[in-house]
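dude i think i finally got it to work??
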Amino acid sequence: MAHTGETLGTSAARKALSGFFLAGLFLAFLGAILPAWGYHLTSQYDIIGHYFLSMSLGLLAGARAARELLPRKGIRFTILLACGVCCGALLFLALVSPPAASWWRVFGLLVLGCGAGLLNTAVFHAITPAYRDDPAATINLAGILFVLGCLVMTLLVAGTFYVYTTPSILFLTAMIPFFFTALYAHGPFPATPVEDHLPIRQVLSDFRNPGAILMALLLFFQFGNEWAIAGWLPLFLIQRLGVNPASSLMFLALYWLALLVGRLVAQAILPRVRHGRLLLASVVSAMFGCLILSLTDNLFGAGSGILFVGGGFAVVYPLAGEMIGDRFPYYRPGVFNGIFTIAVTGGLLAPATLGYFATLWDVRVVMWLPLAGTVMVLILVLLIWLETKLSGKAMAR
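look at this
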């Protein structure tokens, strides 16, 4: 591990890792922009479900396209293309803001998801040198930058909500990937060749491995829990508690801040605590926070619930990433990107499902789904613990 600081500190590595910050901006965009589009004044929850579903499909399509582009055009070209696609999608969404027909925005979000999928896949390949040196530290830093991007996006929309029109906010947002395009176009950049896929025999072996399946399911449900809250929290607070839109976005920023601080704290204390107990404590904290949010009728309860949920969710991703790095050390960043894409897809499918459920019942259902998902994460944690005991493998302390 002697070269970890040097690897992560190089200009090329910083540029590659900054792509996770940009990915966080794009994927947090929809949850932040919904109040600006006026959906807190309507009960068209199914349309919101279409929005999240469209982004999810775009993410998968972008990841698939990146696997074709990377061997032919390289990492730099793919990242530049991703930034250009996302910039164009945001400008298009600025033109089709309400009262334009919602299907135009569905298309724009599909394109935005494609750009995010391209970016995620290319960046995972670009961080290969740092990942080889220290997988756990690299993945944890990537997760922190990702959440930081989500926080910045939310603060950007909240800070300009009553200052600029919605198209103006979207135009300002589109300038961010534009400037990143200039950053990636010049100067040193990782020239890492795209690695070959794992042998099919190894992949099939992993799919027969209960531990690998359980950890993939853990990430799928955990991201679903996180993004169910992130996608619907502002609308939930506005319609249930009468919070004004700008304040609801600040509560969403508090959620991202709790996730960010929680992950920084988790990274600092992981070497000193038993990981199994920490993971169980974090899941119980998240369940308690979801329960508070579903029952509260005041802002203090909302803030407390958000802190419990954010703090509880924060620990799961670093621990899961470390478990994967310990038990599957041969995983390359490109393979890990596949796991990450599946997890983020679950993250976007959860708020999409909530849109359809809220249409059938009410916006109150928004907090019950992540509560049920957190129970599922608790079950998966117990199953992973049992599997490690039966297989004789330590769960990283």
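Residues 1-9, 196-204 have pLDDT under 50 and may be disordered.
im so relieved honestly
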